[in-house]
C-alpha cells in the first residue's frame, strides 16, 4: 500500500484509477490471507489452552537457578540461599551442576527466620 501511495493513489475514494487495480487486488487478497492466518493461530491457541498437555516444571532441563524453583514460586523463592558452583555455559557437559540448594534450617515456632543483616 505504501508503494502505490507513493505512486499517487488517493486515499478513501470509491473507485481507483486502472493503474492501481492490480495492486489493490493483491493487497486485498493479502489482507484476507493475513486474517485467515490470524484465525488459524487463534484456533491453535484456544485448542492448546483447553486440551494441551501441561508443561513440566523445567521443560528445557535448564541448569540455572530460576528453573530450580517450583511454579508458582514460594514467597521467598528459596528456603536457604543457594550456592552457584557451575559455569554459565556447561549445558553440554554430562553431569554438570549449576547450583547447590541447601536444606532449610528448622526454625522454632515464633522465632525469626534469620537476621536482617544484608537485607535490602
From TrEMBL:
Residue span(s) of domain Cytochrome oxidase subunit I profile: 1-85
InterPro entries: Cyt_c_oxase-like_su1_dom, Cyt_c_oxase-like_su1_sf, Cyt_C_Oxase_1
Biological processes per GO annotation: aerobic respiration; electron transport coupled proton transport; respiratory electron transport chain
Keywords from the UniProt entry: Membrane, Transmembrane, Transmembrane helix
An annotated Gene Ontology molecular function: heme binding
An annotated GO cellular component: membrane
Transmembrane parts of this sequence: 20-43
Coiled-coil annotated spans: none
PANTHER family assigned: CYTOCHROME C OXIDASE SUBUNIT 1
Protein name: Unannotated protein
Amino acid at each position: 500500500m505504501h508503494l502505490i501511495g507513493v505512486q499517487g493513489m488517493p486515499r478513501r475514494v470509491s473507485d481507483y484509477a486502472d493503474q492501481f487495480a492490480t495492486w489493490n487486488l493483491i493487497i486485498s487478497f493479502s489482507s484476507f490471507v493475513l486474517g485467515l492466518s490470524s484465525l488459524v493461530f487463534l484456533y491453535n491457541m484456544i485448542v492448546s489452552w483447553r486440551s494441551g498437555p501441561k508443561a513440566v516444571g523445567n521443560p528445557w532441563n535448564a541448569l540455572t537457578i530460576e528453573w530450580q524453583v517450583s511454579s508458582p514460586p514460594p514467597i521467598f523463592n528459596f528456603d536457604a540461599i543457594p550456592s552457584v558452583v557451575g559455569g554459565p555455559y556447561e549445558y553440554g557437559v554430562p553431569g554438570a551442576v549449576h547450583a547447590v540448594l541447601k536444606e532449610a534450617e528448622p526454625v522454632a515456632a515464633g522465632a525469626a527466620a534469620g537476621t536482617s543483616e544484608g537485607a535490602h
